[in-house]
Amino acid sequence: MDYSREIEGKRVHDPYCNWPNDKISRSKRCVWVPGPVIVGAGPSGLAAAACLKEKGVPSLVLERSNCIASLWQLKTYDRLRLHLPKQFCELPLMSFPQEFPTYPTKQQFIHYLESYAKKFDIRPLFNQTVLCAEYDQNLGLWRVRATGLKEEETEYVCRWLIVATGENAAEVVPQIEGIEEFGGIIVHTSRYKSGDAFKGNKVLVVGCGNSGMEVCLDLCNHNASPSLVVRDTVHILPREMLGRSTFGLSMWLLKWLPMRLVDRFLLIVSWLILGDTGRFGLDRPQVGPLELKNLSGKTPVLDVGTLAKIKSGDIKICPSIKRLRHQSVEFVDGRSENFDSIILATGYKSNVPSWLKEREMFSEKDGLPKKPFPNGWKGECGLYAVGFTKRGLLGASMDATNIAQDIETCWKADAKHFSATFN
């Protein structure tokens, strides 16, 4: 079907088509996209585009930043490495280079993604911030309104829309009483690069996930004095067990044993290697690490040396913050301590509800698909999601493969119908 002609026909002849007057239609350009529009050029968006290309389906990738994988390139600290072995972080259809280490560095991973985009000739439109995406019932098509650097608006019209903005699109910044009084440096980890900028400072890191733990270690290595706010229970596991990666060993054991037995095994071995973390203010949840990940998406911390610094006293553990005062922090246990800087390792969240005008597939509360894994990748009316599984790059690869197969079926059916009509 020639959708571009139908769109123009709607504008001219359909009395119920209010495009000339509605807010979305005021963009300067209207572009028909024959294949899917993919919002986001991170690993998830690249994987979806590559899988579609392999099926012979073209796509258009829109990216709000000026590069692919902007989270990795612009908002991660220098010492970052993949927390899982490289074989669990590969995107579909392309392996990591053989010479890469088991846990590739940040720069190596970025190089891999750039090579991936080049191999599959993925050319995103950069600096395109999607303001609104809405399904038009009259046309049976998606209308995606985006703005560029010069605030020029473009409306992209397509049959399929793939949401690939991910779980980490927007920083989570907690509201802390007295934050305006503090006077010192307060930054989110998205703006933290290296502990070198905090040399000699007393620094409070808020958040005890993988990022918070690793930032504390980096601060120690640059002669800063970090303290870590631990607001909740946390599972800390060694990155490797019995000569294998903890994640890889877990995946292998799950093939033969129920999750609760695998959790029990992980906790026993962790206790033998790391000791009782509760002695140092790091109490474990009642639920095992794999079961907790499955239920809530909360990832266990894979220790890369931070726990040893906590045991030695180089990193201090603190309770939740009650309020901030001038370069001091008052904790919920009543004590106060002076700090030069605060780093918020408080994570990220989805931003989908802010631009996608759809309430069936995605939750307004957290911006994630309502259907649990592995069924959250497909919605209604040609809407798809990739990279919202809370299972990292492995989950994104599964989504991308499923989406490409599903769209390929429709694409081939349309081609067959078109051929039969005009031949």
TrEMBL record:
Catalytic activity: indole-3-pyruvate + NADPH + O2 + H(+) = (indol-3-yl)acetate + CO2 + NADP(+) + H2O
Entry-linked SUPFAM superfamilies: FAD/NAD(P)-binding domain
Keyword Repeat applies: no
Keyword Electron transport: no
Essential cofactor(s): FAD
GO terms under biological process: auxin biosynthetic process
Molecular-function annotations in GO: indole-3-pyruvate monooxygenase activity
EC numbers on record: 1.-.-.-
This protein's pathway: Plant hormone metabolism; auxin biosynthesis
Keyword set, alphabetical order: Auxin biosynthesis, FAD, Flavoprotein, Monooxygenase, NADP, Oxidoreductase
PANTHER family, sorted: FLAVIN-BINDING MONOOXYGENASE-LIKE PROTEIN (AFU_ORTHOLOGUE AFUA_4G09220), INDOLE-3-PYRUVATE MONOOXYGENASE YUCCA6
Membership in a protein family: Belongs to the FMO family.
Descriptive protein name: Flavin-containing monooxygenase
Taxonomy of the source species: Eukaryota, Viridiplantae, Streptophyta, Embryophyta, Tracheophyta
